[in-house]
Specification:
α1 crosses α3 and α4 runs antiparallel to α5. The N and C termini lie far apart (56 Å). It contains five helices and no strands. The longest helix is centred in the middle third of the chain and has 38 residues. It is mostly helical. The chain has two domains: 75 residues, no CATH class; 56 residues, no CATH class. The radius of gyration is 20 Å and the shape is globular.
């Protein structure tokens, strides 16, 4: 018996559902990272902790983390493939120069994050101040790429 084309499940929907399921699992944990954090806390701590330690632990590269990255990259690629034109119009001016100088951006972001980590005002865990600081870091990286700052010393 042949299926009709309407009965097929699109692989795009499978990738999207997997990405949302992993995001839902992440938001479903019982721990708050800060006072503005929103958690669903649907899974009790006694059940969440063993599952997290077995599949998503940070000490060793757990299989859940690999699956999460794989699903996220595939879903992001599918999204950008389908919606590249609007994304390019909205964010291309910012993201494309950074992408063309990725090694330079990576090296400079390590330096800038080390500077940010040593600013005492940013140790107070103010979500608004820290967000502004990292937005400034991203803007500074973009300006450094556009002006080709240290491009003769740091590879692109």
């Amino acid at each position: 018996m042949r299926r009709s084309p309407e009965a097929k499940v699109s692989p795009c929907w499978i990738r999207t559902a997997a990405a949302f399921a992993l995001a839902f699992l992440s938001r479903g944990n019982p721990y708050l990272a800060n006072t503005y954090d929103v958690r669903l806390a649907l899974v009790p701590d006694a059940a969440y902790r063993p599952m997290y330690d077995a599949l998503f632990g940070r000490t060793y590269l757990a299989p859940g983390r690999l699956l999460n990255v794989l699903v996220l990259v595939v879903a992001a690629y599918a999204f950008l493939s389908a919606y590249w034109k609007p994304v390019q119009r909205l964010l291309g001016w910012f993201l494309i120069p950074l992408g063309r100088a990725t090694l330079n951006v990576f090296i400079m972001h390590v330096v800038l994050i080390a500077v940010v980590a040593n600013i005492p005002a940013l140790q107070q865990q103010s979500i608004f101040l820290n967000t502004a600081a990292y937005a400034v870091v991203l803007g500074l990286l973009w300006v450094m790429v556009r002006t080709r700052f240290l491009f003769r010393i740091i590879p692109t």
